[in-house]
Amino acid sequence: AIQRTFSIIKPDATKRNLTGQIAAKFEEAGLRIVASKRIQLTLAQAQKFYGVHSERPFFGELCEFMISEPIVVQVLEGEDAIAKNREVMGATNPAEAAEGTIRKEFALSIGENSVHGSDAPETAAEEIAFFFSGLELVG
Ligand code: CMP
């Protein structure tokens, strides 16, 4: 089915000017970028977005990293968009990411891993609503 998923191009990638190369990977995979904006998160926004990870040992480091530079938040649309995006991103840890994936090509470490993507339809809907209004989604 046609789905929408939420994506973040993270600070390590925007800093190295990789926004276009990463967006091209999404488009080559058949995903359409139906919303896109460059923003810089506040600490409160980062903590809220990553709230499910608040008890993890890396939570503080994760939030500080996510506010260190601008990010690009996007909504990707296409057939099985959630799974397709996860395939294009590759494993969370770039050392385990498959050849040709975004994280294999660009990520620096498990924390500085260049992209975030929703893991399920419910989280995709929540994450899209966190950053975008309906009027900003233009299929
Ligand atoms: P993301 O998909 O954005 O969701 C949570 C993030 O936590 C994950 O990508 C990783 O970048 C980050 N993360 C997971 N494990 C670690 C870790 N051990 N150290 C730092 N960051 C981590």
UniProtKB/TrEMBL annotation:
<dbReference type="GO" id="GO:0006241">
    <property type="term" value="P:CTP biosynthetic process"/>
</dbReference>
<keyword id="KW-0546">Nucleotide metabolism</keyword>
<keyword id="KW-0597">Phosphoprotein</keyword>
<dbReference type="InterPro" id="IPR001564">
    <property type="entry name" value="Nucleoside_diP_kinase"/>
</dbReference>
<dbReference type="GO" id="GO:0006183">
    <property type="term" value="P:GTP biosynthetic process"/>
</dbReference>
<feature type="binding site">
    <location>
        <position position="92"/>
    </location>
    <ligand>
        <name>ATP</name>
    </ligand>
</feature>
<keyword id="KW-0479">Metal-binding</keyword>
<keyword id="KW-0963">Cytoplasm</keyword>
<protein>
    <recommendedName>
        <fullName>Nucleoside diphosphate kinase</fullName>
        <ecNumber>2.7.4.6</ecNumber>
    </recommendedName>
</protein>
<keyword id="KW-0547">Nucleotide-binding</keyword>
<dbReference type="GO" id="GO:0004550">
    <property type="term" value="F:nucleoside diphosphate kinase activity"/>
</dbReference>
<feature type="binding site">
    <location>
        <position position="86"/>
    </location>
    <ligand>
        <name>ATP</name>
    </ligand>
</feature>
<comment type="similarity">
    <text>Belongs to the NDK family.</text>
</comment>
<dbReference type="GO" id="GO:0005737">
    <property type="term" value="C:cytoplasm"/>
</dbReference>
<comment type="function">
    <text>Major role in the synthesis of nucleoside triphosphates other than ATP. The ATP gamma phosphate is transferred to the NDP beta phosphate via a ping-pong mechanism, using a phosphorylated active-site intermediate.</text>
</comment>
<comment type="subunit">
    <text>Homotetramer.</text>
</comment>
<feature type="domain" description="Nucleoside diphosphate kinase-like">
    <location>
        <begin position="2"/>
        <end position="139"/>
    </location>
</feature>
<feature type="binding site">
    <location>
        <position position="58"/>
    </location>
    <ligand>
        <name>ATP</name>
    </ligand>
</feature>
<feature type="binding site">
    <location>
        <position position="113"/>
    </location>
    <ligand>
        <name>ATP</name>
    </ligand>
</feature>
<dbReference type="InterPro" id="IPR023005">
    <property type="entry name" value="Nucleoside_diP_kinase_AS"/>
</dbReference>
<dbReference type="Pfam" id="PF00334">
    <property type="entry name" value="NDK"/>
</dbReference>
<keyword id="KW-0808">Transferase</keyword>
<dbReference type="GO" id="GO:0046872">
    <property type="term" value="F:metal ion binding"/>
</dbReference>
<dbReference type="InterPro" id="IPR036850">
    <property type="entry name" value="NDK-like_dom_sf"/>
</dbReference>
<dbReference type="GO" id="GO:0005524">
    <property type="term" value="F:ATP binding"/>
</dbReference>
<keyword id="KW-0460">Magnesium</keyword>
<keyword id="KW-0418">Kinase</keyword>
<feature type="binding site">
    <location>
        <position position="10"/>
    </location>
    <ligand>
        <name>ATP</name>
    </ligand>
</feature>
<feature type="binding site">
    <location>
        <position position="103"/>
    </location>
    <ligand>
        <name>ATP</name>
    </ligand>
</feature>
<dbReference type="InterPro" id="IPR034907">
    <property type="entry name" value="NDK-like_dom"/>
</dbReference>
<dbReference type="GO" id="GO:0006228">
    <property type="term" value="P:UTP biosynthetic process"/>
</dbReference>
<keyword id="KW-0067">ATP-binding</keyword>
<feature type="active site" description="Pros-phosphohistidine intermediate">
    <location>
        <position position="116"/>
    </location>
</feature>
